């Protein structure tokens, strides 16, 4: 059953002197509770897809449906995690976490209970009154996760949330995020450059082409890998084989890419 | 053993800092004394005309007697009042204007050439028009103190609004925030340090506006004393007013600096 679906979505970026076609006829759907990764070269419009689902921008053409309803009419809650934590430095941790509930005017006694629970879940209990600059990068990204989850989103969008972290922190965080998503049964879309990360966290991988952004291939991840925690997947016997298989497609793309000039991701 | 060596080196470093500070203070005091001393000497030996340049002893005597009969307090308090109100109005309206520009790209585009002209224009040249419009009283003078800083404040704060990392807004937008909520929760607080630093500039500008305003119309205030002393050729009075302005402008600047530090500590961690 498809929960989130994109149908023939295209998107253009305009500037006074030129325009760029960022996405061309993107169609795919995601089931409830599924974890999907989008990988692809820079400029393939990965982040654009997330911005469209997050309702920060509207697609030039095509439709996005949630639960059969047009996403702009839907009351579905969407959580969005960015490349960096973007915690507000002048707010305490608790005030940062409360941003979403404050904007939606839904702060209650229950919210505070939930925050306590979530902070325990990410192994950061008792940090409520601290300021973001008192925490390390990995800790801050975990707080950003709590801030995203506190609005109780049905869909979680992850835009390379681990890319600014060191390797060990990144692996640990993959585990925490993956566990939280399973525990609270969220539908998730992860955008990443890191094929290993995509394999270890997702149920399905969408590989994209750049210029204009198109869906190139879709890979299903075997059950045995899906059952393994991200931290251990990279040592799983089938991991290397799958990695090499997908890598063929990825590197084909990269060779083709060399003939083009390409700009940034956004 | 090692720790004691570390500590010796550290205390040596501290001693050096102290010594440097002492040297700077000695030079500052020496220059001050040299200036006052040579002024007094040149004036009493008539190498410079004491009628035009007065002398420190005359200035101090005059301030002392005027403090005694209380007349200087009246002039000082009216000028301080006008400066503080002008400074506050200029800053507040500057920030309001910047917020209006931010609220609509179109408004900002329309206002752009007018802001450029108003900013380039020497504001004190508007003095006569302001006085005609608002009457020859302290309202006009306060207006002069305010108008001189309002446009530059608006421009500086507006450009700071635009430099706020858009990702903070993205976070809020993903929660479904309105534009006003983005402003209130992200753009405004992120720009507070810039706004606070405009305070320091504005306090100096307001002094300029108010003194010029008093030159033009008033019958009271330090600017009036300067112009009056000039007209009756009492340069001791002019010098005394300048000394008082220098002292109080410095005090106000230091207070704003203290306020700046306090605000930064309590709003931006």
Written description of the protein model:
The complex is a heterodimer of chains A (266) and B (269). Chain A contains ten helices and ten strands. Chain A has helices at residues 46-53, 93-97, 99-103, 109-121, 137-149, 167-183, 195-201, 223-226, 230-233, 239-257; strands at residues 2-14, 19-31, 35-39, 61-66, 69-70, 78-81, 155-159, 187-191, 204-209, 214-220. The model of chain A is unreliable at 255-266 (pLDDT under 50). Chain B has 269 residues and is mainly alpha-helical. In chain B, helix 4 runs antiparallel to helix 5 (105-120), helix 6 (127-134) packs across helix 7 and helix 8 crosses helix 9. Chain B is flat. Chain A binds chain B through residues 54-56, 78-80, 82, 84, 86, 88-90, 99-100, 102-104, 131, 133, 151, 157, and chain B through 165, 167-168, 170-177, 181, 185-186, 189-190, 192, 267-269.
Question: What is the residue-averaged pLDDT of chain A?
Answer: 85
Number of domains of chain B: 2
Largest sheet of chain B: none
**Structure classification of chain B:** mainly alpha
Name the average pLDDT of chain B.
Answer: 90
Strand content bin of chain B: under 5%
Task: Tell me the strand percentage band of chain A.
Answer: 15-25%
Q: In CATH, what is the class of the largest domain in chain B?
A: Mainly Alpha
CATH superfamily of the largest domain in chain B: MetI-like
If helices are DSSP runs of H or I spanning 4 or more residues, what is the number of helices of chain B? 11
Distance between the termini of chain A: 31 Å
Shape of chain B: flat
Topology pattern of chain B, helix = H, strand = E: HHHHHHHHHHH
Helix content of chain A: 25-40%
Task: State the end-to-end CA separation of chain B.
Answer: 39 Å
In the CATH scheme, what's the topology name of the largest domain in chain B?
MetI-like fold
Structural class of chain A: alpha/beta
